[in-house]
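Case study 2.
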Amino acid sequence: MIAGQPRIKTVREPLNIRLDHICEMLGFNTWEELYEEKNFPLILEYLKSFSKNSKIHYRFKKEKPFTDTWHFITNRLLYKILHGLENRVEELTYELDATSIVLMRHPIPVSLSREVLPRLEAYQNSDYKKHFTSSELDLAKRITDNGSIFEKGILSWCFQNKVLIEQSKAGLLLSYEELVMNRDCVLPKISDHLKLPDPQKMLKRSRKASGSTSKSTKRSVKLLKEVRMGEKSYLKLIEKWKTKTSSEMIEKAQHILDEFEISAYRAEAIMPTKDFLICRDSYSDNEQKQNKRN
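Prediction:
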């Protein structure tokens, strides 16, 4: 949605070191190195290089010409960072003269969608661990050694999002769930925060499936189509994980959230807790209770 705004050049996943050409540009190839304090100046210089079009590997993903997200003339960079630097949001915002948005999603659907957890051990074995208490790290080791893949997924979510939430004071914190359910309120706030010229274009784009739907199940793709046609509620998009979880899984997820003192979500609820809604005045307590029951 943001990439489609005028004069924006998108830098997609510049820290995804699972790709060889990104390792080549960065000069290292492990997640632990990505989180080492001594490497941050190097990473910062690498990110700044995109504004100069210098030292950018020819294999780095670029927008296809004449698509909605390609612009002949650009004067703003949009960094889409999915991997790493969760603990550096404030510094990146300052050093890159940027405006930041932190996007979070309920830990259970995120964990259910994960097939691998490439950074779970790096969170515990690098300088990143300094953001956590000894009891949190002890619990993490027990889950890493003996937990189920679901518990490890929740643990990885906690490592990433606890720090992101703490860093979000540097920008705008929003949730996927609220964006889906209350886009008429959320999108103008995003537009104002980033000073974007065409919020109506964002609203129109928000009703289309993302480019990642190729990874979705046939049922999910069908549901997306039904929602766009008005046959289903948007609530169906954010609550479908409920059919894939047991009460035991929800209890385990809540236990881990409690141990990490994360209050942004309750495991059994669909929406984030009210303090973490950016349009909380337009989302009543009764609606929140109804979503929790669903």
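Residues 85-288 form one domain.
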